Amino acid sequence: MKSEPLRVAIVGGGIGGLFTANALISQGLDVTVYEQAPKLGEVGAGIFVTPNSVRQLQRLSLEASVIQRGARVGADSRYYHHDGSEIASVQVRDRRL
Ligand SMILES: Cc1cc2nc3c(=O)[nH]c(=O)nc-3n(C[C@H](O)[C@H](O)[C@H](O)COP(=O)(O)OP(=O)(O)OC[C@H]3O[C@@H](n4cnc5c(N)ncnc54)[C@H](O)[C@@H]3O)c2cc1C
């Protein structure tokens, strides 16, 4: 007899909730995400995805999507205000090295 997939409710559709939902769905679980916001969308800020986060995205085969929509940080990368004025350089390596 085939058993029904475990049903999981996740409260909150932030990156934590959505990552968890994707991970559980990839394991065959029946997941429902409950989010209080009427819709998900950009809030006007970029997000810096650190190497440890990229490794987790790779585990869910999401790395290609992130690369497609994002930009790689390098030695010439800078933080900018909305008016285009520069804030600072982006630290891309440990300053102690
Ligand atoms: C200004 C700013 C800049 C940041 N920049 C970075 C960055 O560059 N890189 C980085 O890695 N991190 C960054 N962070 C941190 C990152 O945003 C958080 O660590 C991350 O969003 C946490 O994810 P989360 O899913 O735990 O929570 P959240 O993103 O807060 O998501 C929680 C969700 O739960 C929903 N919710 C809450 N209560 C309920 C309820 N009762 N019922 C239903 N839904 C509910 C909320 O509406 C929300 O959508 C930044 C944070 C801030 C504030």
Folded structure, characterized:
With 97 residues, this protein is an alpha+beta fold. It has one domain (7-37, 46-89). It is 29% helix and 18% strand. It contains three helices and four strands. Strands 1-2 form a two-stranded parallel ribbon. The chain is elongated, with a radius of gyration of 18 Å. The termini are far apart. Bound molecules: flavin-adenine dinucleotide.
Quick structural overview:
This protein is an alpha+beta fold and 97 residues long.
Overall strand count: 4
Largest sheet: 2 strands, parallel
Which small-molecule ligands are present, each listed once? Answer: flavin-adenine dinucleotide
| Share in helix | 25-40%
* Uncertain residue segments: none
Could you list some keywords that capture this structure?
alpha+beta, two-stranded antiparallel sheet, binds flavin-adenine dinucleotide, two-stranded parallel ribbon, 18% strand, single chain, elongated, 97 residues, 4 strands, 3 helices
